[in-house]
Request: fold
Amino acid sequence: EMVEFGVFFNRIIDRFEMSKSQNVSFERNVPKAQYFVEIDTDKLTQVIDNIISNALKYSPEGGKIRFSVREAEGELLVSISDEGMGIPKENVDRIFDRFYRVDRARSRAMGGTGLGLAISKEMINAHGGKIWAESQYGKGTSIYFTLPYEIDDGGEWD
Ligand code: ATP
Ligand code: MG
Reply:
């Protein structure tokens, strides 16, 4: 399905913004419609839901979650950043492994299975994109992913 990514992304963010119970604010840097992506919307929704759920799970009281969409090196670059406890440097790449969870005690308290990001990685790869994390322990985490996109050329006619 061909969708404009900003519209698709904003709709998911809206759903979380309306239903969240925590005192966490959202800041969006999502440009007006122009990035068209050919995606499985159910699967991408699952990917983004998991990333936002994680960001909310690990956000402190009064924290901020930042969403951004931009072009980088010919691809769409999406990021979701939180101000949570972060992930130690040596563990950052492992969060995409199946069943991997940074710290057993905190993970048990938070619930979940440790599969969310492994599934997200499979799905982003299947769409021709990449996904990775950058984190500063004690300061926050950013999840980035890329997707191939097309610019609206004014419409295609068959
Ligand atoms: P599931 O998504 O299956 O419900 P989960 O959230 O524990 O369980 P993942 O989404 O795969 O699993 O995340 C793996 C682990 O990476 C988490 O258990 C957590 O330790 C760490 N992690 C993921 N996102 C963040 C984040 N935003 N801040 C801090 N740690 C994170
Ligand atoms: Mg998760």
In short: Residues 50, 53-54, 112, 116 surround magnesium ion (ligand 2) (CB under 6 Å). Residues 41-57 form the longest helix (17 residues). The mean pLDDT is 92.
